[in-house]
Amino acid sequence: MLRLASSWVWDFWLADDGDRYHLFFLKASRALLDPDRRHWRATVGHATSTDLTTWTEHADAVIPDDSPAFDDLATWTGSVVRDDDGSWRMFYTAVSRSEDGINQRISSVVSDDLFTWRREPGRQVLEPDPRWYETAETREWPDQAWRDPWVFRDHDSWHMLITARANHGDADDRGVIGHATSPDLTTWTVQPPLSEPGAGFGHIEVVQTVAVDGRPVGLFSCLASELASSRLAEDPVGGVWAFPAETLAGPFDTAQAYRITDERLYVGRLIQDRAGRWKFLAFRNDDENGGWIGEITDPQPVAWVDGRLSVGSESQLESRDVRVSS
């Protein structure tokens, strides 16, 4: 588990260099006292582990840029991939002081070793295309949703999945999986969304798609407070959700999403351990009294149960007469 004495930690993403796992996470000082203040003071922290359980903290990976800049207020959730030349590229969400954090954009930084990251001159700053997505000017939501890039290669193209909102539909039901593609990780083209609005979610946060035991599946997170009224009436609980997928690059039917944890855990991620077993990590969100925690869990096993992804301890999964993923 990762718990920092000086900082809360929440959204996170992982990279594996073959020897160590690198954990990148949002962090903010506990001296703020009120965890709701953390978002506008977020930096990207860094820790490493050989077993996904015991972590060693390092210097922060990314901090807000000097003003004026599109990322001079806070740096938020992203993902890390390795380029063909051996360098690493981190895509992250950025908000600026001049816009009071309303506009969300996506950009990237580069590293040779996963420890020291540099901003490149002329790097692309990705914004939503108003042909398909809400923008800061057209939004019917507290802020513009264009964040949490999940980047992966599928065949000859790089894909980016994005927390986004469609520019049509009921205001509380516009959450979609945004999409962009690139031939080289540096030049990106925004594409239409990979899911449809009306699936029951105001936003679809921190999307990840992977193949667990050869079966594609997606994860995202959504709190009860961001569920559409239609889904809220059926089951008024948020958390981490899974959804079926034919391929990692969509399209996706998020109306078929099912919850795999409640709101005690948030921002679930799947990663393989050194034995090739799939594990689930998340950050601890609310305690039994509704208080906010802000730390990252130990890995938990996952398995397919009646065609759905399930998370739990080895004994819990075995008691359901299923095979733990390997």
UniProtKB/TrEMBL annotation:
Transmembrane segments: none annotated. Signal peptide: none annotated. One of its GO terms (molecular function) is beta-fructofuranosidase activity. GO terms for biological process: carbohydrate metabolic process. Keywords: Glycosidase, Hydrolase. InterPro entries: GH32_Enzymes, Glyco_hydro_32, Glyco_hydro_32_N, Glyco_hydro_beta-prop_sf. CDD domains: GH32-like. It comes from the Bacteria. Its EC number is 3.2.1.26. Residues 19-216 form the Glycosyl hydrolase family 32 N-terminal domain. Belongs to the glycosyl hydrolase 32 family. This is beta-fructofuranosidase. It comes from Leifsonia shinshuensis.
